[in-house]
Specification:
Blueprint (H helix, E strand, L loop, with lengths): L2 H16 L12 E7 L4 E10 L2 E10 L2 H14 L4 H15 L24 H23 L1
Antiparallel strand pairs: 1-2, 2-3
Helix pairs in contact: 1-2, 2-4, 3-4
């Protein structure tokens, strides 16, 4: 990856970290998932409202490193309005990207999420990046069980 692209990606990550999208909580009828990454101290509380098989609303709160919180911001922005199935597909594409594997760039528009692909070079940070995504998968699973 060129250094200009690295710089752009760093700027996107820092923008989401300093100006998180969808930070906050949702009303009582939302599913709330608490997850943490004990190795690094990241904590996230994800709030999801699923209606008619779609993620109608997603918000998060928590504390942690820039990668963890930027990823949560990007994830909540990306899954809002998606069907549960498409949100889970997007999560799996994200995991492939985190593992440095080939992923179908044409299948889904990753948008800002692509800025996190450099994390795959730092195995210790992958858990930081995937925390919010794991919470989302757990949350939509809880919603379907209700």
């Amino acid at each position: 990856m060129s250094s200009n692209l690295d710089q752009l990606y760093r700027q996107v990550i820092m923008d989401h970290y300093k100006n998180p999208r969808n930070k906050g909580t949702l009303a009582d009828d939302a599913v709330t998932i608490n997850m943490n990454n004990p190795t690094c101290g990241d904590r996230i509380q994800l709030h999801l409202k699923v209606e008619d098989g779609k993620i109608a609303e997603a918000k998060f709160d928590g504390e942690g490193c820039s990668i963890s919180l930027a990823s949560a911001s990007m994830m909540t922005q990306s899954v809002k309005g998606l069907s549960v199935d498409d949100a889970i597909k997007l999560a799996h594409v994200f995991y492939e990207m985190m593992l440095g594997k080939e992923y179908d760039e044409e299948a889904l528009d990753l948008g800002d999420i692509e800025a996190l692909q450099g994390v795959s070079k730092f195995p210790a940070r992958i858990k930081c990046a995937t925390l919010a995504w794991k919470a989302m998968e757990k949350g939509v699973g809880q919603n379907e069980a209700e």
